[in-house]
Design goal:
Helices cover 68% and strands 1% of the residues. By secondary structure, the protein is mainly alpha-helical. InterPro entries: TPR-like_helical_dom_sf, TPR_rpt.
Amino acid sequence: MMIRSAFRLSRAATTVVKIAHSGFNSRKPTTFAPSAAASRSLHERVTSPNANPVTIQMIDYALSLPRAQKSDESYGEAMLVLEQCLASQLSGGEDFVSQNSKGMVLLAMANLSFERGNFNEALEHLRRTHELQKASLGVKVAALEALVGLSLELGNDDASSVLADKCSALLVLDELASTGAGLEVADARAKALKGFVESIRGNFKAAESHFGGLLGNDDCVGSAALSYGEFLHATRNFTMAKELYQKVTEGEAYNKEFNDRNALTACNMASDQVQIAATCALGQLEAHMGKFDDAEETLTKALNRVELLYGPRHPRVGVVLTCLALMFRQKATQEHSSSLLIQEGLYRRAIELLKVPSVDSEVNQTMGAWRDIAALARAGYAEALSVQDNRKSEGEKMKSWAEAHWRNSRLSLAEALRVTESSNSVPVIDARTGRAL
């Protein structure tokens, strides 16, 4: 084990030296052909004077390596590269470029930790950006946005609200705000972030006040556009919600946001997460509009994307499977048809991937935000079983478990399952955080 660790460290150190040598001594820096998703999950290429170009190369390499190889060793090597990159930055001074470079390395380290499910590590990397007083507004907003996203995913709603307030206050206090550098996009992101938190918490009136003014705002892009779209979707403004979802999924907002040198993202607010979540939300919207063939196609596309990114056994796959199962349930109800076998298979697989405890167990607190999805999946599964005489008792136990663990303050579990045209609002599953609005 010690020999293997030493080899990984040596290999990572060699990579750092090669990148540094190439970056400083060649007109054309060495490229490592990182995947587009890996690069855009943190940033588009940022050139001097915003960040050290060698740092950007190292980040690109570190983010693309585990995506390509999908092994524990590749993640370990990628993290070692970033740790050595950060160590080299720590001796590089306290000027803007050095601090911005450090901030981008920390965002990349948070990304790697997040993708491996190490949320505590990811949170710690993000919090360290608070020490970088001279870092750009983009780094600071990205870190706070990611902190909010992770807090929501872990079910720490009060903390997410405080952090969203800090993001709003940052725009007033940050010295770069006076220059207008990235201020418009950052302002839209901060407003949408607070509106998103309030939506998750069921405070739709408060959410509306924060989303106000974002309609038609060209700076409402990426994650901000998705959050606003989900709010409009949940309040049955289907036409405007669809426009925002398509703005994200078709790339207009995506390209605008991530070509902006001040727009950085991380963790469950990163571009790949936003693309998957927007596709998933659009599929739910099409189901709510009764366009079930379109909904199945769109949700299947979201399923393929999340499996490609995380692998077929990740809990996030269970989130999309739950959305797909609920779509089939709604279709069967509206068309007076039956798809019990399909629903049962999807629910069972989702419950397995979400690692939902048995109905005889206490809720697993480490599930965090997955409780919303777990309750929906188990409640839907219970309904599928309740029509089968020999499985009614099993269904009743599932239903009781789901009702005990449903915590959405806006909708009851029964309301979340029964979407009708007369409903004032509809449930929307946010695939970034695994929460139900």
